[in-house]
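One chain shown below:
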Amino acid sequence: MNKTICKAFCTALLLAAIPVAGAAQDDSTSNTSRLTIGGYGEAVYNYNFYSDNVFRYSHSDRYTQSKGHGRVDLPHAVIMLGYDFGHGWSIGTEVEFEHGGTEVAVEKETEETGEFEQEIERGGEVALEQFWVQKRFSKGLNLRMGHIVVPVGMTNNNHTPDQFFTVYRPEGENTIMPCTWHETGISLWGRAGNWRYEVQLLPGLNSNLFNESGWIHNGSASPYEFRPANSVAGAARVDFTGVENLRLSLSGYVGNSFNNDITRAVYSEDSRYYGATGTVVIGAFDFAYRDRFVTVRGNADYGYLSDAGLISTRNKNQTTMTGNPYPHTAVGRNAWDASMEAGVNLLAWSKSRTGDPRLYLFGRYDRYDSFVPAAGFSDTPWAERQVVTAGVNYYPLPQIALKAEAGMRILKAHYNNEPYVAVGITWCGFFKR
């Protein structure tokens, strides 16, 4: 990280010690029981009324009459454990089973003309999303150390299935950023009145894993037993809850990503890569309003990658030897996402007691672009999409939801639109706290 970035982040870290905090989520360790056990999970069926052929974008005219395809999935099954040791010390863990298995997944790469590839994620299909030790000094100052969630954007900070209406996590943020984004690092957080803050020191992303279809989404993964950490990054979030039923949030990230891999190349002054940093900068705003009758949520994210042209050239020229875990595509200089969802609780007007079943009729709109190219690189028009969704959420109990939706992914005129339907059942709660 260059001196300007380091200076800016250190200043933010010092300012974070001033208690300016609010409630994005309940981090209190004042529970009467020292042991906390909980979790969440999702089981899904969806049918896509479009072709999943890897050439559906490069030769879209061949796939206009596709009969589509159905899928069943277990996107997430998570066990959460926490313990309060007393004297301000506590721990938290979150183990996630993604897609119901522990194997290494095989997928067809759209960008690589249908080549089969093993999908390398952090730890395969079992992820340790949180594993931290925390020291509480006061309500306004807490120190958390270990494996932590990076609270940039709406979904990373609100990723349990009761925090969004759709069957799957919101598409835009889930495409352009790691989601759920978790890193090993240090966090300072606290509350004061209607404010909550969090500032984090983290390892930088790995630009070798960036691509055109997901921007930096895979950049926090590692195909190794460890995470390369040649670069340092910073993340921050501030939440305001001073208006009844409303939360307003700003979050951001900055860090270098180039040459942050298992080996560090040494470039001479006459090399095109000399001085490249691959600085990733993300700014995000999100909000949520909820009362008994309506729930409205929205977000806007904008990302910038310096030296995107050089990184694209290097990534496309990487060796193709067997076992190479890296994509070979360009990466955008920018990526962005904006979304809004709103739901009306149709049972809110009943005269039954508080906590009875809820039935939401909702609509959602997403628009995002994972690839705004650097100079000299061609655009990838299918990377810009709109997604329109409508559906229902039924909560027979606060911890259990039945979800159903129908949606359309709208691409530019040259491509085929992608309609789909999905149903799922989710749970989210605590057995002991």
User: Anything to note?
Assistant: The helical segments are 3-15, 154-157, 171-176, 308-316. The radius of gyration is 22 Å.
